[in-house]
């Protein structure tokens, strides 16, 4: 993601899990898939896409305007796709059995030698849960299952508004190593997109929001700003 390195002194921490939150239309999925596509296209790092809400074909088709050729990366074995949209049978009385999905993810990572993992959207797993305590318990299980896989992970999560809680359940951000917030706020009848690194656990990062754009040519790009005042 051009410009992100300036915020994180080198980008997303390797081998850690980053939770990417924002409201509908803030650019979460674009950000996550740009991270995944860049690994295959520019850095020789295969990846795995876990889609929990949108069918893979539709998701890849919707991103075709960016020129990443996700379909080609899948065909060439640079990206493996785990379709978890039909996961209803894995939810019983508000408890999600992550073991089966975790095994599928681990197999996909091994299959392509993945270094990057995207889970989109994470909170779709927990819509049937009763309260934040159940979500937090389940998320700890998710984190434990992903940690030994040795991949750099981006998980997206929905946020109700640009202000207030960072996530739908108010629990997701406490489990992830890192938290990045995307905003698409309305100011004087104009939309303004910003990106903020809220935490990089154990790693330094710049504070505050910076503007970013989503462009069919440059994709997501954080706009450089001066940090002399931070």
Overview of the molecule:
This protein is globular. Mean pLDDT is 84; it is low at 88-94. The chain is an alpha/beta fold and 230 residues long. It has six helices and eleven strands. Helix content is 27%, strand content 28%. The chain has helices at 4-8, 28-42, 56-62, 70-75, 98-112, 132-146; strands at 17-22, 47-51, 79-83, 91-92, 95-96, 116-120, 152-158, 178-187, 190-200, 209-215, 219-222. A nine-stranded mixed β-sheet has the order 3-2-6-7-1-8-9-10-11, sandwiched between helices. The two termini are 22 Å apart.
Helix count equals: 6
Mean pLDDT: 84
Compute the number of strand runs.
11
Q: What is the oligomeric state here?
A: single chain
Sequence of strands across the biggest β-sheet: 3-2-6-7-1-8-9-10-11
Tell me roughly what share of residues is in helical segments.
25-40%
The N- to C-terminal Cα distance equals 22 Å
Shape: globular
SSE class: alpha/beta
Summarize it:
By secondary structure, this protein is of the alpha/beta class. It has helices at 4-8, 28-42, 56-62, 70-75, 98-112, 132-146; strands at residues 17-22, 47-51, 79-83, 91-92, 95-96, 116-120, 152-158, 178-187, 190-200, 209-215, 219-222.
């Amino acid at each position: 993601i051009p410009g992100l390195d300036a915020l994180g002194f080198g980008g997303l921490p390797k081998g850690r899990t980053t939770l990417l939150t924002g409201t509908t239309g803030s650019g979460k999925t674009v950000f996550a898939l740009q991270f995944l596509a860049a690994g295959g296209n520019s850095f020789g790092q295969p990846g795995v896409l876990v889609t929990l809400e949108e069918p893979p074909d539709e998701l890849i088709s919707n991103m075709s305007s960016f020129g990443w050729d996700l379909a080609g990366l899948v065909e060439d074995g640079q990206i493996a796709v785990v379709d978890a949209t039909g996961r209803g049978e894995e939810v019983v009385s508000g408890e999600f059995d992550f073991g089966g999905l975790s095994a599928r993810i681990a197999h996909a990572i091994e299959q392509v030698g993945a270094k990057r993992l995207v889970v989109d959207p994470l909170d779709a797993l927990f819509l049937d849960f009763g309260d934040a305590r159940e979500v937090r318990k389940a998320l700890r299980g998710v984190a434990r299952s992903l940690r030994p896989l040795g991949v750099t992970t981006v998980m997206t999560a929905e946020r109700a508004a640009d202000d207030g809680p960072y996530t739908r359940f108010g629990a997701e951000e406490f489990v992830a190593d890192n938290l990045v917030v995307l905003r698409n706020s309305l100011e004087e009848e104009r939309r303004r997109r910003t990106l903020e690194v809220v935490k990089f656990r154990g790693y330094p990062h710049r504070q505050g929001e910076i503007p970013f754009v989503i462009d069919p040519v440059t994709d997501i790009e954080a706009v450089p700003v001066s940090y002399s005042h931070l």
